[in-house]
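Sample 1 of the test manifest.
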Amino acid sequence: MKASIITIGDEILIGQVLDTNSQWVANKLHALGVELVETVSISDTKQAIVNGIDHAMSIADLIIVTGGLGPTKDDVTKYTLVEYFNDELVLNPEILEDIKERFRKRGIHFSDLNKSQAMLPKKATILPNKLGTAAGMWFQENGKIVISLPGVPFEMKGLIDAEVLPRLKQIGGFPSQVYQTYVLYGVGESNAADALEVFENNLPDFIKLAYLPSPGRLRLRLTGTHQDKWLLENAIQQLGKELMLVFKEESIIEGDVSYVDVIQQYLTKNKQTLAVAESCTGGKIASDITEKSGVSQFFLGGVVAYNALLKQNILGVSKEIIEKHSVVSKEVAQEMALGVQKLTGADYAIATTGNAGPTTDDTNEEVGIVFIAIATQNQVIVERFNFGQPREKVLEQAKNKALEMLSQEILKNQ
Amino acid sequence: MKASIITIGDEILIGQVLDTNSQWVANKLHALGVELVETVSISDTKQAIVNGIDHAMSIADLIIVTGGLGPTKDDVTKYTLVEYFNDELVLNPEILEDIKERFRKRGIHFSDLNKSQAMLPKKATILPNKLGTAAGMWFQENGKIVISLPGVPFEMKGLIDAEVLPRLKQIGGFPSQVYQTYVLYGVGESNAADALEVFENNLPDFIKLAYLPSPGRLRLRLTGTHQDKWLLENAIQQLGKELMLVFKEESIIEGDVSYVDVIQQYLTKNKQTLAVAESCTGGKIASDITEKSGVSQFFLGGVVAYNALLKQNILGVSKEIIEKHSVVSKEVAQEMALGVQKLTGADYAIATTGNAGPTTDDTNEEVGIVFIAIATQNQVIVERFNFGQPREKVLEQAKNKALEMLSQEILKNQ
């Protein structure tokens, strides 16, 4: 089964909102064995929706449409679909009762506009929305399925999980789709491709190799589709082993692992701990680590020392050093790392201080300069970086570089 | 001029990677006055690319294609475009020299595969890439423009800014496109629409009103397109004033403002300061605040007290209170807020403690429970929330709710 996702909303086309719905649905379809051939974002107009569905019908059997189901005038998806399928709107008494009940519970006035949310197409299967007032709709005609869902992410996700996936599973007959990622450090895309030439030429038809370069690392992905799940999984596992043998052991890791994964794995294994002292990164490193569950095993926390006084009063950075070298300096980064290590008793510590911009306040360094310090059990390493501009890039790169430096120190000490 | 964006890459269709390029380009096109009618993500195959371009040609005059320009076998965009435009690849000596120079500088071996990056279409205008080895290509035929750019975000952005936008500006003749957002608190979508019925019916043809609901707030957006920039900007400004008068003054704010904007505005104005003490949110609140520039005017920093010992040793939460009520409790949230306020001397403090899940460790509360405390100059407010699951949602909602509670306290004290 081939699928297409259509997200409807001018907010995406004018760049006001980032479409995250498509990726979420893409993951679900991939796991189910449905081949997604296209995702499209279009405008909130009848004409754009009709064109979009016509085009999707020509390349896919399953079309998932999100957005445009609100009660307001700018939302036209439902009316367009009803016309498209020569259907008509009828009052759905159960959905009306659901909506009224939602309003009663929250003590909000129920208006005629809300009643329009219970006017639903006669021929479609109605998918009740437990998290909002816009019901989902499942149209089926000439072997094609068109599913319309609200665009609010948590409502859309609730409907996919509770209503859409169980129905698709009942249809069944999907092949297995599997991918496995390997992360390669210190090898460029073209050098990796040269090294993998023979391996790539010998891949079976149903498995593809992809290269995903990004600053500092290259991800390699083996992707396969096959009716026989066991055969596919074994083939990918076996080929993955061969692929890893092409490179030096320390330069490749199996899985789409991040630096935080590496840090978590080794510190948890060794029962060691980590604390952070963040100035310019302002909590970004701590936040990145604590996005993962289970990190309380090794992550103690730390100090966001955005203000110079906090660097002195909590982390014990000396006033003289700040005055002599300014807050953005090698010396301050070093004292911050040692300070938070002492304060928390952690085995490892990360510290950052820099000018994320756009202004440099009263420091000696230009915008983009960041000092990162890593304190281990027997030394402190400090490096100076120029991450350029703009601010978001400086913060993101400083965070990634700090986690990379720490993973390397941890791996050295294994 | 109507535009379409095509992003190429299986990594998007299998859900491995989130497409952020489209939004970035969408913003640039909107500011320029180019109407984006569709964004599409498709697979790395010749067939998909040809279909995608054929379809885009039928609805747009300008097609921006990103991705598939690497030197490896999985990248076929360049070869497909050359065939599509009946063009041929020729060696571009300047680009070859550029690439060799990049490799020399970084001390990396230059291979034949890299040389293939300098084989470029004869008829296209070549756009030099200062940040990578994949040059951009500008094809023009029968009044349609197709621009091919690398998919690596910072390379694509560099090429858009340095090469694509200046050329589009030269073509010129675009209308003005303007939008203005208003954020409404405490009013639902349907009630807002009822209140705005007359306003909406009287809008001129060239201005549209859109409703963007999300948990806890509703954004209203006026969007317009007109050849006369002055007329358009004045009309939107005037209508914005009328729109705001429909609601109570305290429930609507002009601009796509976040809670951090509100906090920054008032604390900076009043020369007051803020510190945070984060347990479950793990640095997310600090990180959100410091994403913005200029926040050092009011934001001091704070403590990420992920581990219970840090709550005691740095924030001074008493061991007895933790043992009596467990770390996830109203009492601990309150002591954390007061502790960080005292430690930093801040006027306001935020504290969070909760179970983000998936496990509850050794606390009394279930997964999803978060206590948020706000310390002001004369009191501490603590609230208990159940943000459910999964972990990411709990963390995101706890962060948003904490910033919302703080803005409300700040606004009360005005």
